[in-house]
Design goal:
three-stranded mixed sheet, Rossmann fold, Ubiquitin-like (UB roll), 32% helix, 22% strand, 3 domains, 265 residues, 6 helices, alpha/beta
């Protein structure tokens, strides 16, 4: 017993034991690596679990051919996910394995709210992406990194204009931080830089009284004439330019009117 204990405690014996277990571990790892790389576990299907409106089968097939490498056990899931999220319409992708030979893909597509600047689209969260779309969309403009601010302003002003039935066709934030918009009726509105919400709300409140339908002397209705240009940058009111230099239906000046100057905001 003592001889065996002394033998087991010998440094060379301990080294041999470590080398033996290390060799067995390497053998097991190699055998497992060889096994999972066999064609028996080859991937056969890329299944899209969520409905998509814009991502095409051809795009998914291209990702499968170029980025799906390895078997069920060795495929790089993260690489496949990143490749899917590079597709134009994909906002978010999730990839999972399903035994025995399938990758299951869940996609969240961008939903475009408007066109952004010259060649991009933007969604309701202000995310900018580049994709082709034939739908008629509002157009938003702004300096770089202002997409979220412009989208928030667009949604807010759209709600303010809703009682009049107007929709924003174009909203622009200039490099000097001034806001301008064009409505679907063709009306142009200058909002300036400050208090734009209050200015637009005041205009909406007064619009029916200034530009609503009126009656002729015989009682027949006269169709309302909308202004061509509205300048809301005045501290206590706004200026309008009517088509053909007409006056608003309910505008009745009393005495000479001094020309007012809009504020610089």
């Amino acid at each position: 017993m003592s001889d065996n204990a002394e033998f087991d405690a010998h440094p060379l014996c301990q080294v041999a034991r470590v080398l033996t277990w290390g060799a067995l571990g390497l053998f097991a790892y190699g055998a497992a690596s060889w096994l999972v790389a066999r064609p028996w576990f080859a991937l056969a299907t890329l299944e899209v679990k969520t409905p998509v409106a814009h991502v095409t089968e051809a795009q998914l097939r291209l990702v499968a051919e170029r980025k799906v490498r390895g078997t069920f056990f060795t495929v790089d899931i993260e690489r496949v996910r990143e490749s899917l999220e590079k597709l134009p319409w994909v906002r978010e992708a999730r990839v999972e394995r399903r035994w025995p030979d399938t990758l299951v893909v869940s996609l969240v597509e961008h939903v475009p709210l408007a066109r952004w600047n010259d060649d991009a689209l933007v969604d309701r969260e202000g995310n900018v992406f580049v994709a082709a779309v034939s739908d008629r969309l509002p157009r938003l403009w702004g300096p770089e990194d202002t997409s979220s601010e412009v989208v928030e302003t667009f949604l807010r002003h759209s709600q303010t204009l809703a009682p009049l039935g107007f929709k924003i066709d174009e909203l622009r934030l200039t490099p000097r931080r001034a806001w301008r918009m064009r409505l679907d009726s063709g009306m142009h509105i200058a909002l300036g830089r400050d208090s734009t919400d209050a200015r637009l709300a005041r205009f909406v409140a007064l619009y029916p009284r200034l530009f609503g339908a009126t009656q002729a002397a015989d009682g027949s209705p006269i169709a309302a004439v909308a202004p061509h240009t509205v300048d809301l940058r005045y501290p206590d009111g706004f200026a309008v330019r009517m088509p053909d230099n007409r006056q608003p239906a309910s505008f009745r000046p009393r005495g000479p009117v001094a020309p007012a100057q809009p504020s610089t905001t």
